[in-house]
Write a structure and sequence with these properties.
The complex is a heterotrimer of chains A (203), B (300) and C (679). Chain A contains six helices and one strand. Chain A is an all-alpha fold and 203 residues long. With 679 residues, chain C is mainly alpha-helical. In chain C, 65% of the residues lie in helices and 1% in strands. The chains are: A mainly alpha (203), B alpha+beta (300), C mainly alpha (679).
């Protein structure tokens, strides 16, 4: 570090160099924490409203542990495949990155497909979010997670495009890293959903 | 310098004005002239807190005025210590004294909150009078289950007899209060809250909703009248001779939004009306939604 | 599908004179602004120089402009309420309930979300990076989106006057009254989307400020050398990040209830209104500390500079700030002591609420002790600070009283409560930001504000405040509830008349602020800030020129002490000329953030009026804009070293012509910073 004067240095400030990417990752962690608060409050609301079925169907009557297991398998597997993509990224292997990103999208889309089926089935049998407070809580908690996953899928598609067009540049890698944080975070939230919503709801 | 002086005199002026203004109306204030022990106790807590906080407030006023005057920039006589940034005895004082005050306050806050819990029945040896209050748009319905009568916008009760009020709402959230007798509690649909009040002597007071509930909110006031025992019996007899009865149909009509509703008497009430109103919102579930009543405690 | 959703010709405000007047003023206001810009031929400057700028200083100034405009809009609401209540004894007054109820709702919503939040975001944006020795915030693009989302929210509130109505459910929007069963129509939806969209902006701002302070400090600027203003920003950011999600959840749930028939807060079908109240105040209480902490930071800066003395008790102040931040999450239930919780629950939250008074008291004493044995200069920011110190204590006192549940049982929902929180917000928040505005104005624009008009604005504000709000304490003790459109108790009217007079004097205070600005612009050549350090300041923002170069610091400063700039002046190295410069990278201007903000505004409008295709289109636009931004390769521009040198040479030339110390002429001036131990 050289001094241009007694008080000034001529080093570049953090925002101009490689530290810029570290800041972005840090900022993204902070965003995830605020998202975590949102989910925590949705969980709290769900739990508080468990009994507010207003004479309508309960979780026991509605939830299918098989379907939930299938959704869990798809999502957890998609986290693993994203991890493979991250390993390929570290090895600078562009085609592998693309492969595993595509597999992740497919698995994520499978999750959304199953969840969509679950929601539309419930709505068709009169157990939609407008049936009771309990169901409003359920649809909002699980639906918010599903919305996040859908946005994540869109984001992966965008990243597939970026990898194809730009290659594995530093900015692209930084975005993939943040996307990974996001995707794994959603995985963790799903594990909590499975444990708080589906398991107790059925057992 | 002139600014500091002007500043101090302005403070005195403003405070004086405020005090002057408070001269009118003080005697009719429900809080400054309470009619029951609950408001008296609640008000006493306010004054106690006000007094103890003067330990902090008065020094702030004095220091502000004194420092502005003495350490004004043009006053070269005052000591100037531009680097005096820390002095640990002051720190101890500045953290310690407010902390001590807060601890002292805590010894008033916790017992006071327990003593003045709205759910605490008032034990005077006299059997309490039970009243069920229903908030509607934009009036109050009072059901007397023991006497099997109901009244709109007038709550009459004998002085010296504790009032045990169960409160609910048949509309949006309201807040029931008779300030001369005690504090408020929310009225919520599908739920039941409780309030216990006592009037020391006969008096004409007012009560109202204080949680904004729509167009007719400003007029959602009722007369709260503490009477002698005989006057109360006479009043009950008067209500019992009213032509109207509060059956299901009459209730439905009453519950429709209306403003500035005159006092109305019903000589007979649909059985379990209060519980049915609550149950309606809880989707057909008629079980007592109220929590267990704590052991009787006295309000000083 | 309806192309226009539920928007019809009846949504226009021709059903009442008052509504039509309000709409007329709003439309006229917007047209006047556009006319003025056209008259000065400034569209190019406005669009390409400001709207598209990612410069934190310009974003900060734009935030403050939004705040000042909305201050006037919110004040009109206040004036209307005061005049209505002054005359509405046994009478309907001039405002029918439907209007009065919209007005009290928009007054609170505007003042909290669209006056105070933008004001603090603006001051922080303008100054905090400079205090850190940094060139910008960590995420300039996101910073701009935050600005435009806030403006979008303000726009939704303003347009509700012209198309449709605003909410009558208060600034807190309690269900079930705010649900679709009791208040159908667009009013509550306008409120919801204005709050939600600006709330997203605030969450992003919190993240931005936190990362900036943690990651973008100049070398040597350890956390315990941060100026107090930046410390308060740090804690405020944490509050923003963790509190706003609660508001988002509460409002989204209410929106789902209203729009999609959900049952979160409905009376029947398993809803529970108490959940909304918990969620709302989980945000609501930290929010008031978000509002006040930066103001406390301003006072810390001002009191040290204008007592010409080091801030007293720095560590205590930092600890107190952190304690306030932490405790602010533990007190939310005191907003609904009367909802029927048990005595144990109420006692716990009462105790926690009284505890939070302790660090606040510590701060007040530390500020007073900064004045002790200083040399006080009574410039307008200092006047506002002294006014705050005395007046805020009364509000703190009433807060401690309300913290006792039995007292709250009597005083809740009365004008005593109104008096209490205005007693915190006006002397606390508003005086703080007005002081900051006058303190940092020269830094932003290069010339000082007229001090005479500044002083008069202070006197009008403080006298007006006492007259407007002390009677409300008394009225609360007389039993008067809040939100009363008319009343029948004669004893209340004299106090309400005094309060209306107070509001009028506050109006004079606002006029003084406007005159101050106009006069200052007119006389700016006589009040130039030539050194960048008009007040003999202590922190790094005073090292830059006024206004600063786009990059703030040509070279990153090396910090060696607390009060970094004062320390440099003492060592005689503050204005040392560097022997070389480097290329500087800054973000380029871009339309994308304004496009995202505009799409946010239209999205909110579409959601209010159920124009679903338009809402989807806006979401798609936002998505596309983000993808475009993420795909752009060159989002930065480089200022070559030669150009930096030219700018800096001009600055040093101006410094050579400037007086050694701009405060030297002040009769109270204590002398410039001398090295330790010098005579």
């Amino acid at each position: 570090m050289t001094a241009a004067s007694a008080t000034m240095t001529d080093i570049a400030p953090p925002s101009e160099g490689a530290e810029k990417y570290e800041e972005k990752a840090f900022g993204f962690w902070i965003y995830l924490m605020s998202d975590g608060v949102i989910f925590a409050l949705l969980f709290a609301t769900y739990v508080v409203m468990l009994g507010n079925t207003a004479g309508g169907p309960t979780g026991k009557e509605l939830f299918s542990l098989e379907r939930a297991a299938g959704e869990t398998a798809l999502l957890l597997l998609s986290s693993t495949t994203f991890g493979f993509a991250a390993v390929a990224l570290a090895a600078a292997d562009r085609s592998r990155v693309l492969l595993w990103l595509v597999v992740t999208v497919a698995l994520g889309a499978g999750f959304i497909f199953l969840e969509f089926g679950e929601f539309s089935g419930m709505i068709a049998q009169g157990a939609g979010p407008d049936r009771s407070g309990f169901l409003s809580g359920f649809f909002t908690l699980v639906g918010t997670h599903g919305l996040h996953v859908s946005i994540g899928i869109l984001w992966i598609l965008v990243m597939i495009g970026q990898v194809l067009i730009k290659g594995l540049t530093r900015p692209v890698a930084s975005r993939l890293a943040r996307l990974g944080l996001f995707w794994h975070f959603l995985d963790i939230i799903w594990v909590v959903i499975f444990s708080v919503v589906y398991l107790p709801g059925v057992l | 310098m002139r600014q500091a002086l002007a500043y101090r005199s302005q403070i005195i002026l403003a405070l004086g004005l405020a005090l002057l203004c408070s001269g009118c109306g003080a005697l009719t204030s429900p809080d400054l002239d309470p009619k029951g022990p609950i408001t008296l106790a609640e008000r006493q807590l306010l004054f106690d807190g006000l007094t103890i906080m003067m330990i902090v407030i008065v020094p702030v006023f004095i220091m502000a005025a004194l420092f502005c005057w003495r350490y004004r920039g043009t006053n070269r006589n005052a000591r100037y210590t531009p680097n005096l940034a820390y002095y640990w005895p002051i720190e101890i004082l500045v953290w310690g004294v407010p902390a001590a005050i807060i601890i002292w306050l805590g010894f008033h806050l916790v017992p006071g909150t327990h003593r003045l819990d709205p759910y605490n029945p008032i034990d005077t040896g006299v059997a309490p009078l039970e009243v069920q209050a229903v908030a509607q748009d934009w009036k109050w319905l009072f059901i007397y289950p023991e006497q099997n009568i109901a009244v709109v916008n007038e709550l009459v009760f004998p002085a010296g007899t504790p009032l045990a009020i169960k409160i609910t709402s048949d509309t949006v959230m309201n807040s029931f209060v008779i300030p001369a007798l005690g504090g408020q509690i929310y009225a919520m649909a599908g739920m039941q809250t409780r309030l216990h009040l006592l009037a020391n002597e006969p008096a004409e007071m007012w009560g109202r909703n204080v949680q904004y509930s729509g167009t007719g909110f400003a007029d959602q006031q009722f007369r709260a009248i503490a009477t002698t025992k005989d006057d109360f019996d006479a009043w009950v007899a008067k209500v019992k001779s009213a032509a109207d009865t509060l059956d299901a149909g009459a209730y439905e009509t009453l519950a429709k939004p209306s403003q500035k509703v005159p006092v109305t008497y019903y000589s007979d009430v649909e059985p379990d009306l209060f519980d049915r109103i609550i149950a309606k919102w809880r989707h057909g579930d008629i079980t007592d939604p109220a929590p267990a009543i704590p052991a009787a405690a006295t309000a000083e | 599908m309806d192309f226009f959703g539920r928007l019809t010709i009846d949504s226009l405000p021709f059903y009442s004179l008052i509504a039509a007047s309000g709409a007329g003023v709003t439309v006229l206001g917007a047209l006047s602004v556009m006319a003025v810009i056209t008259y000065f031929g400034a569209w190019r400057l406005v669009v390409f120089g400001w709207v598209t700028s990612l410069d934190h200083k310009k974003i900060g100034i734009m935030y403050i402009m939004v705040a000042l405009v909305m201050l006037m809009r919110g004040f009109i609401d206040a004036a209307m309420m005061r005049s209505q209540q002054a005359i509405a004894f046994n009478s309907d007054g001039y405002l029918p309930p439907g209007h009065f109820d919209q007005i009290f709702s928009s007054h609170g919503t505007i003042m909290i979300f669209f006056m105070a939040m933008p004001f603090l975001s603006g001051l922080i944006n303008l100054i905090m990076p400079q205090q850190l020795g940094s060139r910008d915030v960590a995420f300039p693009f996101m910073n701009s989106i935050s600005l435009w989302f806030t403006t979008a929210g303000a726009g939704l509130v303003l347009i509700s006057l012209v198309i449709g109505k605003f909410s009558t459910a208060g600034w807190t929007g309690y269900p079930p009254y705010s649900g679709s069963e009791y208040t159908p129509g667009v009013g509550v939806d306008y409120w919801l989307w204005a709050v939600l969209i600006s709330g997203i902006g605030s969450t992003m701002t919190g993240i931005n400020f936190l990362v900036t302070i943690i990651k973008c400090r100049a070398p040597g600027m350890t956390l315990l050398r941060l100026p107090l203003f930046t410390w308060t920003v740090l804690v405020t950011s944490v509050l923003m990040i963790f509190a706003f999600p609660a508001l988002t959840v509460a409002c989204v749930m209410l929106a789902l209830d209203r729009t999609a028939g959900f049952h979160f807060f409905t009376n029947a079908m398993g809803g529970n209104m108490m959940n909304y109240i918990n969620l709302f105040w989980l945000w609501g209480h930290p929010e008031v500390y978000i509002l006040i902490l930066p103001a406390f930071g301003v006072f810390s800066e001002v009191v040290a500079v204008f007592s010409q003395k080091r801030l007293f008790g720095y560590i205590s102040l930092v600890l107190a700030t952190c304690a306030i931040g932490l405790l602010s999450f533990t007190v939310w239930l005191h907003h609904f002591f009367t909802m029927g919780s048990s005595a144990n629950v109420n006692s716990f939250f009462g105790i926690m609420t009284t505890i939070i008074a302790v660090p606040t008291g510590v701060k007040v004493f530390d500020w007073l002790l900064t004045m002790y044995r200083g040399r006080i200069i009574f410039k307008p920011p200092m006047l506002y600070t002294i006014g705050f110190l005395v007046t805020f204590c009364i509000g703190g006192l009433s807060g401690v009283l309300l913290a006792m549940p039995p007292v709250d049982y009597l005083m809740h929902n009365t004008t005593f409560l109104i008096a209490h929180f205005h007693n915190m917000i006006i002397p606390g928040v508003l005086f703080g930001y007005l002081a900051g505005y006058m303190f940092w104005f020269p830094k932003a624009f290069g010339f000082k504000l007229n001090e005479k008009w500044g002083a008069w604005s202070f006197w009008c504000w403080i006298i007006g405040f006492y007259l407007a709000f002390m009677p409300l304490y008394v009225l609360g003790l007389l039993g008067m509830p809040r939100r009363m459109e008319h009343y029948e108790i004669a004893a209340w009217q004299p106090h309400l008349i005094v309060a209306a007079i107070g509001a009028f004097i506050i109006l004079l205070g606002i006029v003084c602020l406007i005159v101050q600005l106009v006069v200052s612009i007119r006389d700016r050549q006589q009040a130039l800030d030539l050194t960048g350090d008009p007040w003999n300041g202590r922190s790094l923002e005073w090292l830059t020129s006024s206004p600063p170069a786009p990059y703030n610091f040509a070279l990153v400063p090396q910090v060696q002490s607390i009060d970094a700039f004062w320390d440099m002046k003492q060592r005689g190295v503050a204005y040392e000329r560097p022997d070389r410069y480097v290329d500087i990278t800054l973000p380029k201007n871009t339309f994308l953030s304004a496009v995202i903000g505009g799409a946010g505004f239209v999205f909110g409008f579409a959601m209010v009026w159920w124009i679903w295709w338009l809402a989807l289109l806006c979401l798609a636009t936002i998505f596309v804009a983000i993808v475009i931004r993420a795909s752009q390769n060159d989002t930065d521009m480089v200022i070559p070293a030669a150009e930096v040198k030219a700018i800096e040479d001009a600055r040093f030339a101006q410094l050579a012509k400037a007086p050694k110390n701009e405060m030297a002429d002040d009769p109270g001036f204590a002398g410039q910073p001398l090295p330790e131990g010098a005579a």
